[in-house]
Amino acid sequence: MTERPVFIAVIGSASCDEPVAALAREVGQEIGRRGAVLVCGGRGGVMEAACQGAKARGGVTVGILPGADRREANRYVDIPVVTGLGEARNAVVVRSADAVIAVSGGYGTLSEIGLALKMGRPVVGLGTWELCQQGRPAAAIIRADTPLQAVEQAISLARMDTGEEK
Amino acid sequence: MTERPVFIAVIGSASCDEPVAALAREVGQEIGRRGAVLVCGGRGGVMEAACQGAKARGGVTVGILPGADRREANRYVDIPVVTGLGEARNAVVVRSADAVIAVSGGYGTLSEIGLALKMGRPVVGLGTWELCQQGRPAAAIIRADTPLQAVEQAISLARMDTGEEK
Amino acid sequence: MTERPVFIAVIGSASCDEPVAALAREVGQEIGRRGAVLVCGGRGGVMEAACQGAKARGGVTVGILPGADRREANRYVDIPVVTGLGEARNAVVVRSADAVIAVSGGYGTLSEIGLALKMGRPVVGLGTWELCQQGRPAAAIIRADTPLQAVEQAISLARMDTGEEK
Amino acid sequence: MTERPVFIAVIGSASCDEPVAALAREVGQEIGRRGAVLVCGGRGGVMEAACQGAKARGGVTVGILPGADRREANRYVDIPVVTGLGEARNAVVVRSADAVIAVSGGYGTLSEIGLALKMGRPVVGLGTWELCQQGRPAAAIIRADTPLQAVEQAISLARMDTGEEK
Questions:
Q1: Nearest CA to C91 among C64, C62, C60?
Q2: Nearest CB to D87: which of C109, C119, C132?
Q3: Residue of D1, D80, D96 with shortest CB distance to A55
Q4: With an 8 Å Cβ cutoff, is C3 touching chain B?
């Protein structure tokens, strides 16, 4: 077999407005044209836009679904993984990736950010949650200004990472 | 059977310093003496201190463990649930509770806060994460100043809640 | 804390006829009056009958539910654990027990028998599945003729067991 | 996007002798050359042999791993899904497939057979467990005599199946 590709998770809400979808699409495109595999929760919104972008650049997309029905996957998912685990599937999305890009996002995304940081996965943020403790911003999320920057950082961190756990 | 008790999850790090442990212990005591069931991740630190407090007041404690070995439970857990699910067990901790109290905490706690908010469980915070989006604080976590206040708010929110999902 | 009690899982179908329910009820009674904790999937049929029996003898019952709604628990469950994991919760039921008693049962029960044997939990069967490989019966399930015998065997095996994994 | 391919799970032990591996390899080859996606638990033995066969015929392989480390995957897995769920990942393997082929196998395989039947996935068996209830063989597992026959049956059943749940 050839060398394993890098796996990048894109996390964000299952519904979003068009500017956020445009960001996610561009993130997907940059992932796709670098030959990285896009991992996501497989549903609509940010996940669908990212998958669409990846497919437009010949990428491979994996959708790790919360429900018990494969038809829940958006139409740009190549490999639907049907977990039936509900929100507990968030841990599987994050664990299956070398690095994570959060695009905007709600509470589900917040939980995935927490899980990723806990598991030692680098998290790059595009307009996503900001974290503080005792009034001071926490440095955990790496801020990116553009989709291109986000993907470059995520892939470079994914390659550096030789963490034991993964 | 008699009426079901209220279930309160206490979340926080598996290791913590004594001031945080003291807070958690007091949270546990207040839960225990109100006859609520304390649900937690079953391990050390905040979880152990909270269980210890609850047992000191005659409470019942449930520890939902990440690993495959029951002996991972702290010695104040009455009912160890051995999931073997790793971090995915965080979703089970939160889903099994009517309301959640976060005491300080790290990334695992952050993930549980995200999951709780996603599932519609009220989250009361004692010196825990603060969340912002686009530079503005998010109102999602209810701040408490003391363990007593935290438990009173959590129990009162738990009783009010008649959410469909739960 | 006092010594931890023994945890016995009772597995079987979520709906069953009265003779099977009567067996399950008696299994629950024998568990309850020995002070063991009854663990089950928390739903109807065999699970409900076993919980009813345990409660009638002052036992404690834990119901590890597949769905996201606590109200799915039968009314004899003291501690509902709300997993939202679907069938994947079967692994949690079995892992949380020192020994397993299968009462009749369908495919879900079969999966729990497989998981229990894989995890090294002793399985005692009352009118449940029989397993063969290459035409020869497999000895894995310990047959019992009565609920009393099933519970005595399960508790005695649970006490003997000092397996690493648990 | 083009039409979704059929997903076939191959289940069996993580270690096996050469005759069983040869069967699994041939099953993988037949899956691969029909353009179906092979889903498995991602580890050694039957899983590795099946993946090797599929790759030799240009197929795509998905490995749904129990542990937290991607390097646990055998080298013929294209898409490693790192669940960290332990044995609970068996439910994800089976749910992600349209039909299941069991090759020989131990207790883990038995649990997957139970889960598949519970979820309404057709199960084709090659020298695997036989099930009886009350002394009578249960018809649930479809017996195949050769890998070719197993794959033809699995794919034809997968295509027929329009079950609600999936």
A1: C64
A2: C119
A3: D1
A4: no
Residues 6+ apart with CB under 8 A from A149: none
Shortest CA distance to D110 belongs to which of A81, C140, C63? C140
The Cα of B2 is separated from the nearest Cα of chain A by a number of Å equal to: 30
pLDDT digits (tens, 9 = 90+) for D109-122: 999 999 999 999 99
Which residue of C11, C81, C107, C121 is the best one to mutate when testing the D interface, meaning the one whose CB has the most D CBs within 10 A?
C107
What integer pLDDT is reported at residue C165 of this predicted model?
43
CA distance C148 to D67: 39
Closest-CA distance of chain D to residue A165, Å: 6
DSSP conformation class of C12: -
State the Cα–Cα distance between residues C111 and D65, nearest whole angstrom: 18
> How far does the CA of residue D132 sit from the closest CA of chain A (Å)?
29
What is the Cα–Cα distance from D21 to A93, expressed in whole angstroms?
31
Calpha distance B16→D100 (Å, rounded): 47
Distance CA A154, CA A147 (A): 10
User: For residue B129, which phi and psi values (nearest 5 degrees)?
Assistant: -55, 145
Query: What are the counts of helices (DSSP H) followed by strands (DSSP E) for chain D?
Result: 5, 9
- Whether the predicted pLDDT of D48 surpasses 60: yes
Note whether D68 contacts A: Cβ–Cβ < 8 A: yes
Closest CA of chain B from A62, distance in Å: 19
In terms of DSSP H, where are the helices of D16-126? 18-33, 45-56, 89-95, 107-118
Q: What is the ipTM of this complex?
A: 0.94
Q: Which whole number is the average pLDDT over B54-71?
A: 98
Using a CB-CB cut-off of 8 Å, the residues of chain D touching B85 are 84-86, 88
Give the residue from chain D lying closest to B87, CA to CA.
Answer: D84
Residue A139 pLDDT: 83
**Residues of chain C below pLDDT 50:** 1, 162-166
- What span, in angstroms and rounded, lies between the C-alpha atoms of D166 and D164? 6
Q: How many CA atoms lie within 13 A of D126 on its CB side?
A: 28
Contact assignment for A87 to C86 by CB distance below 8 Å:
no
pLDDT one-digit tens code per residue, A135-147: 888 889 999 999 9
The 10s digit of each residue's pLDDT in D82-141 is 999 999 999 999 999 999 999 999 999 999 999 999 999 999 999 999 999 878 888 899
Tell me what the mean pLDDT of segment B109-122 comes to. 97
| pLDDT over 90 percentage in chain D | 88
What the block records as the tokens of C143 is: 């047959």
Residues of A in contact with C83 (CB under 8 A): 88
Q: Is B84 an interface residue toward D (CB < 8 Å)?
A: yes
A79 touches chain D (CB under 8 A): yes
Whole-angstrom Cα distance, residue C47 to residue C29?
13
Q: How far apart, in whole angstroms, are the C-alpha atoms of residue D121 and residue C87?
A: 13
Residue A157 · residue A134 · CB < 8 Å: no
Q: Residues of chain D with pLDDT > 70: what percent? A: 95
* CA distance to partner chain A, nearest, from residue D131 (Å): 26
Question: Confidence class of residue B107 from pLDDT cuts 50, 70 and 90?
Answer: very high
**CA pair distance B55, B52, nearest whole angstrom:** 5
Q: Do A114 and B119 touch (CB under 8 A)?
A: no
